[in-house]
Amino acid sequence: MSSKDWIEKDYYAALGVDKSASSDEIKKAYRRLARESHPDHNPGDTGAEERFKTVSEAYAVLGDEKKRREYDEMRSLFGSGAFRRNARGAGQPGGMPFDVSDLFGGGAGGGDSRFSGGGGFTDLFSSIFSGGGGGGGPARPRGPARGRDVETEVALDFTDAVHGVTLPLTLRAPGVCDTCHGNGAKPGTQPVACPVCHGAGVTTRNQGSFSFSEPCRNCQGVGTVVEEKCPECHGTGGVTKTRTLHVRFPAGVADGQRIRLAGRGEPGERGGPAGDLFVQVKVRPDELFGRTGDDLTLSVPVTYAEAVLGTDLRVPTLDGTVTLRVPPGTPSGRVLRARGKGVVRKDGRAGDLLVTLDVVVPAKVSDEARAALETFAAQTPPAAREHLDARVRRFS
């Protein structure tokens, strides 16, 4: 990603969000677009692959608060025409806008007109206006760059999420070339100092009243060039490879939680550290159990007779069974608690199993049951409804 890209490309439009969008809105838009255009879901579709690269590039900037702030400042500065020069000399009319391409080497000398690194607003001005209005020392060559973070999703069974599980995770992503170990040179050879910048990684040229230091176009600011390229990666130092990681999901991991694996993302450039891998957890619902925090929930039907007379109720847990006492006269919706039968907390303690009783009323009964219920009703006082009867009489 080049610094010129930051001026020319509208990353907000790429993600379909407004400039005032929150971080969560940007992340949500990126996930949706990345999922829709991912090459694995669109095999052979070059258009989808380009869209995936575009949204990934946009999120790499807008998803980082510092980069987003610098990006906004740069586009605001150049969009307002803050940098302009007079083509006919100071004080004369007929001037023309400052050509942004001059800043990137497009105005003199030919070659690649882009910086090869995405240093952002601060790096742009530190490299271009070295020392202020002219003179000053050369800009620093590009140093090691941290690799990008990678994010993926994994679906877990409900039981595995509660108890914890280790699963293999297969990723297809950029990685260091095993043949040249990342230096891009053919085995048995090494990169040599760039003959243009003599290993400095930058060159200096004069542009009117300014002295510009910019990354060397011959070595792309690295300071070295590869004379004999690696046959595997063709001198890039990196290849797309498939790798399998064994990821440990701790007991009690929740739906929507992110697991961070430090240093397991994309490899860094020029010896920089690798990015991180973030695994988004999706927990499949269970046919019996629900979850509220560290407590498990379960709904159990009971008969009218069991609710009235009371009973010992045997219910399942994730580890076996437990017997709960249903007191006589238990109403529908009452919650019984089985302590310690929920999700194990980080401190070793466990949540509870909350059992909600649902009194089932049969749609049909036998003649004998109906007679028994009528006898029961005749011997049972009616429910206290005085507070309701007063309101009914008001509208009668």
Automatic annotation (TrEMBL):
Compartment list: Cytoplasm
Q: Where are the CXXCXGXG motif repeats?
A: 177-184, 194-201, 216-223, 230-237
Gene Ontology MF, one = heat shock protein binding
* Keywords of this entry: Chaperone, Cytoplasm, DNA replication, Metal-binding, Repeat, Stress response, Zinc, Zinc-finger
Report domain CR-type positions. 164-242
Function per UniProt: Participates actively in the response to hyperosmotic and heat shock by preventing the aggregation of stress-denatured proteins and by disaggregating proteins, also in an autonomous, DnaK-independent fashion. Unfolded proteins bind initially to DnaJ; upon interaction with the DnaJ-bound protein, DnaK hydrolyzes its bound ATP, resulting in the formation of a stable complex. GrpE releases ADP from DnaK; ATP binding to DnaK triggers the release of the substrate protein, thus completing the reaction cycle.
Q: What is this protein called?
A: Chaperone protein DnaJ
Lineage of the organism: Bacteria, Bacillati, Actinomycetota, Actinomycetes, Micromonosporales
Q: Which gene encodes it?
A: dnaJ
